[in-house]
Design brief:
Helices cover 39% and strands 20% of the residues. The chain is α+β, with helices and mostly antiparallel strands.
């Protein structure tokens, strides 16, 4: 009986840790060529990347070519405590360079900091990335 309870606990905990959240709605509409589409859809199956205090997953929606990077806190009692405006200087230029090819083909990308104090960033596009890259040179 003890083994059964232990196995059941492991299955339940694994299910909880891999449950995907539903991203907030977006007005972004884009399209990408089929050669990018399959690679982007594959990101939906990439296991969560843990970091100290939480995990990060990818959710690509092929209906509007929007990639949402979900950054989730590990504990429901914790909250995000940083200025979202700092992302424009510290994160966006690097993200724009890393995803330059699919962004230039029509993909949109946003970050969703899920949890208490959470927020969703603006949708990055090829055009907005050009602005962020110029600002940081």
């Amino acid at each position: 009986m003890k083994k059964y309870a232990l196995c059941l606990s492991a299955v339940l905990l694994a299910g909880c840790s891999t449950a995907k959240l539903t991203p907030p709605p977006s007005d972004f509409i884009g399209t990408v060529p089929s050669n990018y589409e399959q690679d982007l859809i594959a990101l939906n199956d990439v296991p969560a990347s843990p970091f100290r205090g939480g995990n990060m997953t990818f959710q690509y929606d092929p209906t509007n070519a929007l990639l949402t990077v979900v950054v989730q806190l590990q504990n429901a009692r914790w909250s995000w405590n940083f200025d979202p405006r700092s992302l424009k200087k510290d994160l966006f230029p690097q993200v724009c360079e890393n995803y330059e090819a699919p962004l230039s083909e029509g993909m949109g990308l946003r970050y969703w900091y899920a949890g208490s104090g959470g927020f969703t960033t603006e949708v990055l596009t090829h055009q907005s990335c050009q602005t962020y890259i110029k600002l940081n040179k």
